[in-house]
Amino acid sequence: MIVTAITLGTSGMVSGQGTPADSTQAAGAAAPAAGGAAVNGDPAAGEALYKANCTSCHALNKRVLGPALAGVNQKYNDEAYLIKWIKNAPAMVASGDERAVKIYEEYNKAAMTPFPQFSDDDVRNILAYIQVEGDKKPEAAAAPGGATTGAESADTGVSNFMIIGLVAVILIAFLVILVLNRVIATLERLLLNKGEAILAEEDETEEEAKDKFAGLKRMAKNKKLVFFVILGFVVLLASFGTVEMWNTGVHTGYQPVQPIKFSHQLHAGTNQIDCQYCHSGAWKSKNATIPSLNVCMNCHKYVQATEKYDGEISPEIKKIYTALDYNPETQAYGDNPRPIEWVRIHNLPDLAYFNHSQHVKVAGIDCQKCHGPIETMEEVYQYSPLTMKWCINCHRETEVKHEGNAYYDKVIAAHDQIKKGEKVTAAVLGGLECGKCHY
Amino acid sequence: MNKTSILGLAFLAITAITMMSSCKDKSKPGLEYAPNMYDAIAYNPDQKNPNFADGKTAQVPPSGTNPIGYARFNYPDTREGYDAASAGVVNPLPVNQKNLEEGKQLYIAMCGPCHGPQGKGNGSIVELGKYPAPPSYSTGVSSRGGAMKDLTDGKIYHTIQYGLNLMGSYASQLSPEERWQVVMYVRELQKVQ
Q: Could you tell me which residue ranges the Cytochrome c domain spans (chain B) (predicted)?
């Protein structure tokens, strides 16, 4: 359920960060709120400059590498000073300007890039854009409310599924009762046919109150009934046992609870991030590799889904920070990192050798062929049975791509040598490779 | 037949069904026959390991060790290192179809989400508005000065190795050879109009 919340949260974020529909109109609305700071620039022209030059280090409403920019006009209230700073920040720090040095110290001594290519008007335009966009903050904050209701409705969706399941179970139970009723009626008729008098039945109803087990006792005496009941049990147990034994060691559908509610549907589906971005080992090693947390931090240093959690960092993203001992306020890493204990889903027995790079890089097989529609999975489950039969069936059907593969070129060369009657040693066929003996 | 036995039988049937369905717990892998043949004594790379202080099997190699065939990149993560790399290194790989193809494949997977398929700073997560756009390789301006299209092999490699601004280091995802293949492809994207 939390997984759905994350997905909705991030999509909510999209609407929150959307580009302004009409910035000039917004500028008009924002002008009174600007207070003492004068905004004399073109926000539309500033937007392009801002997005091309500033966003790799700054955001409007949160700290990135540099400080949040919303309200910068009011804070300094001196356009000429800001223009000087933005055009050459290192010079400001070097000149010993008190406020510039303070910011420089506060932000881990990361020097701001000088922008000598900006004209004074360029900087004014950027400042105007920051003014207009920064004042929009309350508007953007309204978005999370909508997202939350979305998450709630998703929750009811899950419970609906459970209700349907329960109804189905009850229906099945009802059917079972009906069938059993039928069976009982037939058995009764059998008993009657056996010559037991109608009187006896009347006795039965009377005796019922006296001896509850009278009926059972009488049924136990009926050898046919006992035989069929026992037969039924044996068939049931045998079929159940066969299914269980058949599926021993087959973990299809295995979906363990993971320590972080990571959604492949969001990352690989919506965001279209390539599988190998995180599982980079799939190309070059036996193991597809679980990404280390620095890979998460490539994006989550910036992406915190705060729009969804009323300005708080998403609790799932916080788990990454906790594991890394990372402080998002100061952006500093502590010295007590702990690994995340992901639960392995696809687990071949160690007696079988499987190499990802051979399948992904050499054969060019899509990840989905074995792992199923991963890009639609909120939570990953094992899609394929990973049985030997499953492997072998695929190996029987798959054609080898031998073009441009140096291995097969060598095999063909050796084949030609043999045909010509030349001497071919084991070494020619790779007999000297260490792994042939020392595995 | 009486009601008690009907109810009793129905109850039994329901219990049997519940028991059978509860055996299919998705969060458990299920039965395994002779699991000691499945799990070797040797540790897998992603397994816990009580023999190391931090409990991980995958240990970081001691500092200063190089894998066989590994070329070192002796430029520090500073502005001076960046400029020195620009002057000091060129791509050791020959420009050919194979390297460009592999560079493209790696670029699309590793850089594409932000930098976009053409290097214009319009990757999938930028288009979705989730991440700020990086500068375009062909028309953008580098935050360390100069045009992006004038970046040298050494500068691009230095950035892949250490990261810059919001971009993290890709040293853990790309081997040195792969980094040079990506550099080769990025040099091509600088020419995109």
A: 98-190
A163 in any annotated domain: yes
Query: CB A303 to CB B131 under 8 A?
Result: yes
Helices A214-221 & A223-246, crossing angle to 10 degrees?
A: 90
Q: What is the amino acid identity at position B138?
A: S
Domains of chain B: 79-189 (1.10.760.10)
Report how far Cα A201 is from the mean position of its chain's Cα atoms.
65
Domain count for chain A, please give it.
4
**Each residue of A318-342: pLDDT tens digit?**
899 999 888 888 888 888 888 888 9
CB crowding A279-318: b at 16 or more within 10 Å, else e:
bbbbbbeebbbbbebbbbbbbbbbbbbbbbbeeebbebbb
Question: Are A241 and A366 within one domain?
Answer: no
pLDDT score for A237: 92
For chains A and B, CB pairs below 8 A equal 180
**Residue A150 within a domain:** no
State whether A367 and A312 are in the same domain.
yes
Q: Which domain holds residue A123?
A: 21-135
Q: Rounded distance, CA A86 to CA B132, Å?
A: 20
Residue A411 tokens, joined: 């095999």
Per DSSP, the three-state class of B178 is helix
pLDDT of residue A137: 58
* Cα first-last separation, chain B: 88
A146 within domain boundaries? no
Return the H-helix or E-strand segment holding A71: none
Measured CA to CA, the distance from residue A425 to residue A242 in angstroms comes to 51
Q: Is B12 within 8 Å of chain A by CB?
A: no
Q: Look at B145 and A113 and tell me if their CB atoms are within 8 Å.
A: yes
User: Is the predicted pLDDT of residue A7 greater than 80, yes or no?
Assistant: no
Answer yes or no: do A75 and A130 share one domain.
yes
pLDDT tens for A29-71 read: 444 444 444 567 788 888 877 877 777 778 777 777 778 787 7
B48 close contact with A: CB closer than 8 A: yes
Structural domain contains residue A182: yes
For residue A110, give the nearest of A80, A89, A81 by alpha carbon. Answer: A89
For chain B, which ranges sit under pLDDT 50? none
Of all residues in chain A, the percent with pLDDT exceeding 90 is 12
DSSP one-letter string for A347-398: ---TTS---HHIIIIIS---HHHHH-SGGG-SS----S---HHHHHHHHHHP
Within an 8 Å CB–CB cutoff, is residue B69 touching chain A? no
**pLDDT given for residue A426 in this prediction:** 85
Q: Does A236 touch chain B (CB under 8 A)?
A: yes
Evaluate if residue A380 carries a pLDDT over 60. Answer: yes
Cα of B41 to nearest chain A Cα, Å: 10
